[in-house]
Design a protein that fits this description.
The complex is a heterodimer. Chain A is mainly β. Chain A contains 2 helices and 5 strands. Chain A has a 5-stranded antiparallel β-sheet. By secondary structure, chain B is of the alpha/beta class. Chain B has 11 helices and 4 strands; from the N terminus they run αααααββααααββαα. Classes of the chains: A mainly beta, B alpha/beta. Strand 4 of chain A pairs parallel with strand 3 of chain B.
Chain lengths: ~100, ~200
């Protein structure tokens, strides 16, 4: 899979709560943030932990405003997230198919 | 959170021991090979490494830029690496300034740049630190006795994938003229995590 997102792109994380291991920390699920930079390609632990085939996939540093994660706070949190768990959104936070 | 450090991973530990036993029985692994590899890695892993990198960055602006741009390449200049004898990990160094402060955490388990900081402190692995520092970093820093200027912006770096993070603290005032060794001696492990000024 190739890298889809450039720095500055607004993205939303996957909102799902799977029964298996996932590298989307719970506090970031469904939140909107901004791509900071690419970290290259890495196998997805969500698949690897289940013994599924896993090609290396793009991983990004994503920056969130604390208020978008916790409804409070004036700081930022960056989280490292695989591309497969990210959807691009526009400036209002809508995904393209919702428009 | 997926990991804890209170003994409920004993099932996993038993599985690992079982695999080790099978590898040894089949002659694929010498009984002491893993111990030797771990001991060799830990003998080189120390916060003195991180402190030396910071002191060099304070003294050499070119090295500082390269460190912030591509930390793995910069480490090679000072004979350090994120390899530890295993797969090399990506390192990202984040710089503190008067306006911006950085703190590192791993909310999912306890990822940590062991090669540069040595084994992690117990509190770093505690659920309290991992859950609270992302939500209320200013309060957590204050409990470490570190009261940051309210105007300074905080970024918390959650190492949730394959990168490891280290903080480049601000150089203390009044340290002009000090050499690399003297500067390195001022840098603490907590400063490299971001819960102390230096």
């Amino acid at each position: 899979m190739t890298e889809r997102f450039a720095a500055g792109t607004r993205v939303r994380t996957s909102p799902t709560d799977p029964t298996h291991h996932t590298r989307v920390p719970r506090y970031t699920r469904g939140a909107t943030g901004t791509i900071v930079e690419s970290q290259g390609l890495h196998p997805l632990p969500d698949d690897r932990s289940r013994g599924l085939p896993c090609e290396p996939l793009p991983v990004y540093t994503v920056r969130f405003a604390a208020r978008d994660l916790f409804d409070e706070g004036d700081h930022a949190v960056t989280v490292d997230i695989w591309q497969t768990h990210l959807t691009p959104v526009d400036d209002e936070g809508a995904t393209p198919h919702e428009r | 959170m997926s990991g804890d450090h209170h003994g409920t991973n004993s099932h996993l530990a038993a599985q690992v021991r079982h695999v080790e036993t099978l590898l040894e029985e089949r002659g694929l692994l010498d009984a002491s090979e893993l111990d030797r590899a771990l001991e060799a890695f830990l003998a080189r892993a120390s916060p003195a490494n991180g402190a030396r990198v910071v002191a060099r960055a304070w003294l050499d602006d070119g090295f500082r830029s390269r460190l912030l741009d591509d930390a793995n390449a910069a480490l090679a200049e000072v004979d350090l690496s994120m390899g530890g004898g295993l797969q090399e990990q990506r390192l990202k160094v984040v710089e503190n300034t008067a306006e911006a402060h950085n703190v590192i955490v791993c909310t999912l388990c306890s990822c940590y740049p062991i090669a540069l900081l040595g084994p992690s402190p117990t509190w770093y692995k505690s659920e309290a630190y991992r859950s609270r520092v992302v939500r209320e970093p200013r309060a957590v820093l204050s409990e470490f006795g570190f009261d940051l200027d309210p105007a300074t912006e905080i970024t918390v770096w959650d190492a949730s994938a394959e990168s490891r993070y280290m903080v480049l603290p601000r150089r203390p005032e009044g340290t002009e003229g000090l050499d690399e060794q003297s500067l390195a001696a001022m840098v603490t492990r907590n400063g490299l995590i971001g819960v102390a000024p230096v």
